[in-house]
Recover the amino acids of this structure.
């Protein structure tokens, strides 16, 4: 037995018809271009952060490790002098 499910005379997706009749207000072309410029600048800034920030973190970690090692070396060297006295 075959059942014909689509017996409606109009399109099942009535939202397509309704959406086609919606009027959208768009800003002028000059304002759209300004928005594009702002978004491009924002994207460039984010890109610079994404590349620069990890490098900065790596450099700070190297700096931390260097000074940490210097302090421990200094403390260990002075520890030997203090125990000799």
């Amino acid at each position: 037995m075959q059942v014909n499910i689509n017996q409606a005379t109009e399109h099942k997706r009535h939202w397509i018809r309704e959406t086609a009749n919606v009027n959208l207000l768009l800003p002028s072309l000059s304002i759209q271009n300004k928005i594009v410029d702002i978004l491009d600048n924002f994207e460039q800034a984010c890109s610079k952060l994404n590349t620069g920030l990890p490098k900065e973190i790596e450099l700070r970690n190297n700096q931390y490790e260097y000074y940490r090692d210097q302090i421990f070396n200094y403390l260990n060297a002075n520890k030997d002098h203090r125990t000799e006295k």
Notes: The mean pLDDT is 83. The CA atoms of residues 29 and 64 lie 51 Å apart. The two ends are 106 Å apart (CA to CA). The chain has two helices and no strands.
